[in-house]
Amino acid sequence: MVDRVAANVCGYALLAWMWIRVSMSYRTSFALLTLGQFLITGLDFVAILVMFSNVDALGGFSLTEIAFLYGGSALCLGLADLLLGNIERLGQRIRLGTVDQMMVRPLSLYVQVCADEFALRRLGRIAQGGLVFGWSIYALDLDWTAARVAMVPYLLVFGTVIFLAIFTIGAAVQFWTAESSELANAFTYGGSTLAQFPLTIYPTEAIKALTFVVPIAFVNWYPSLFILDKPDPLHLPTATQFAAPVAAALLSFVAAAVWRTGVRRYRSTGS
Amino acid sequence: MSVIEVRDVDRSFVVRHRSGRLRRTSTIVRAVRDLSFSVEAGEMVGYIGPNGAGKSTTIKMLTGILVPTAGSLRVAGHTPYAERAALAQRIGVVFGQRTTLWWDLPLRDSYDLLRRIYRIPADRYRENLATFTDLLDLGPLLETPVRQLSLGQRMRGDIAAALLHDPDVVYLDEPTIGLDVVSKSNLRDFLRETNRERGVTVLLTTHDLVDIERLCSRVMVIDAGRLVFDGSLEGLHGLGEARRTLVVDLMEPAPPLDVPTAQTLRVDGPRQWLAFPAEASAAPLLAAIAATHEVADLAILEPNIEDVIKRIYSTGPAPSD
User: Fold this and answer.
1) Which residue in chain B is spatially nearest to A101 when comparing CA positions?
2) Is the ipTM of this complex over 0.95?
3) Coil, helix or strand for A46?
4) In this structure, what are the phi and psi dihedrals at residue B312, rounded to the nearest 5 degrees?
5) In which element (H, E) is residue B87 found?
6) Do the Cβ atoms of A250 and A213 come closer than 8 Å?
7) Does B283 touch chain A (CB under 8 A)?
């Protein structure tokens, strides 16, 4: 068991490293793509800056506070996107038959699909999110207690896991309908866009949906309520602000189950 | 002990199609039915049948890609679908139609990656790579990205990749498809030698009966999901002589040709079809025709799998053992 996990982690690293070397053989193209990702995702935040030239607060949040929410969501999404961003093309792989080739190798199919065409250019998105996040931490006028400081890596780790799980579920659905990658994108990229703003600007029903249905609110919203010391519009118990690991675990469990069922279905239908 | 054991395997697919505006009906297609056979270690078995007969379905079940609907499979001591990753260490697979290598990587890098994925001991890897580079003439290709290789070069590269980790069993799905005559012949030599020297069990599907003739002492024929023949190549020939067809275009339409060593099958204007024994040379036949008629053009059709299967059906049920 331990041996298998180790083999798969090594396998992921090997495949990812191989793709990095391939992309590095086209250095200029790599640099431009990374810069492009940085700039395109950066435009999002420019829009927020423009908005704040007219208003002082949005949903009770200042510009630096929104930068914190935005940066947290962008960083988590960026990390998840880097680690398994190409999983969303599973449907295409099934159609091309390349999934079969992966199944005759001594590594888990999941690891191979995630690592396939590993794209370091996605660091562009991470760099942009990190920049905004870092600036907000610097600019926020907060008493950085040990608990607040500890909450930052906590937010990033479990937020990333939540996005990883959502990406996985979205991809696994393609075992049933190969054309569903846009549906999955609506949840991942769409969800992260929602989470870039304070959820107080949305109707209560939307906040509930983002808490109990697609728990993207646990990525940055609830941890941020604690860090920024803001009231919870849903008045949930304070424990909710620390519940990200529970949401991450539950979602990962669902993701694993859906993925397994999908693979079993694939293996019983063929291509 | 047999290295491949297939017992009473069935494999059905549900095929859905639209009937009417919204309604969809599904039919169950049995791609493979009541399939049973075993292959001993070191055997080289040809697995033939028309398109859609169930060849690929069988290979996919033997590699663990597909789960059988019923029956049991064992390959090298593993149940393929349940122990896919463990089995992968013991088998090599070549899909003739697509490469298992990485498109953008030079061959050498692909092999190095496989070495680490399969955890091949360094000395064993060096030895194998040297052997295959030599036998398959890969030396000049090792630094070339796979996408720049020709079909024949890629096939050689793929076959070496499938053998690097010393598998017990190798499945070759149409390994000679699309290759020219010389490449085919070289590849066959290599496969025969590998099978003999290394004791690798080989299961090979093909549309080219010459592959079978040159390589396999045993042939299995599958048709409509059923195994209709399992035996020696001589046994298959014994079911009726294999015949080739000579197609001649005469300068002018003529009555059916009367040549003693051949049978005229069909006449269509100046074009005539003559069947003759597969082992016989076409030269004397052509000479006989040219002696009485002026020949504009000619072509020779090799015996195909459909003919073989037709002969099996016309001579009764498959011998079972």
Assistant:
1) B100
2) no
3) helix
4) -60, -45
5) helix B84-88
6) no
7) no
The full length of chain A comes to: 271
Say which CATH architecture domain B2-238 belongs to. Answer: 3-Layer(aba) Sandwich (3.40)
User: Chain A: residue nearest B80 by CA?
Assistant: A104
Per-residue pLDDT of chain B (321 residues; tens, 9 = 90+): 699 999 999 998 887 777 777 777 888 888 899 999 999 999 999 998 888 888 889 999 999 999 999 999 999 999 999 999 899 999 999 987 788 888 888 999 999 999 999 999 999 999 999 999 999 889 999 999 888 998 888 999 999 999 999 999 999 988 888 788 888 888 999 999 999 999 999 999 988 878 888 899 899 999 889 998 898 877 776 665 667 888 999 988 888 888 888 888 888 889 999 888 877 888 888 888 888 888 989 988 877 666 777 777 665 544 444
Q: What are phi and psi of A117, to 5 degrees?
A: 55, 40
User: What does the alpha-carbon distance between residue A211 and residue A251 come to, in Å, rounded to a whole number?
Assistant: 12
Hey, are the CB atoms on B88 and A10 less than 8 Å from each other?
Answer: no
What are the sequence ranges of the domains in chain B?
2-238, 243-302
Domains identified in chain A, total number: 1
Nearest-angstrom CA–CA distance, B174 and B182:
16
Any alpha helices (H) in A104-202, and if so which ranges? 109-115, 123-139, 146-172, 181-195
Rounded-to-integer distance, Cα B70 and Cα B136, Å: 40
Q: Count the alpha carbons within 13 Å of A143 in the hemisphere toward its beta carbon.
A: 3
Nearest CB among B81, B89, B93 relative to A267 is that of B81
- Give the tokens for residue A204: 């209560």
Structure tokens, B242: 């294999």
Report the gap between the CA of A145 and the closest CA in chain B (Å).
46
Distance (Å) from the C-alpha of residue A33 to the closest C-alpha of chain B?
A: 18
Smallest Cα–Cα separation from A269: which of B65, B36, B33?
A: B65
Q: Domain residues for A223?
A: 2-269
Indicate the Cα dihedral angle A256, A259, A261, A263, nearest 10°: -140
Nearest CA in chain B to A6: B117
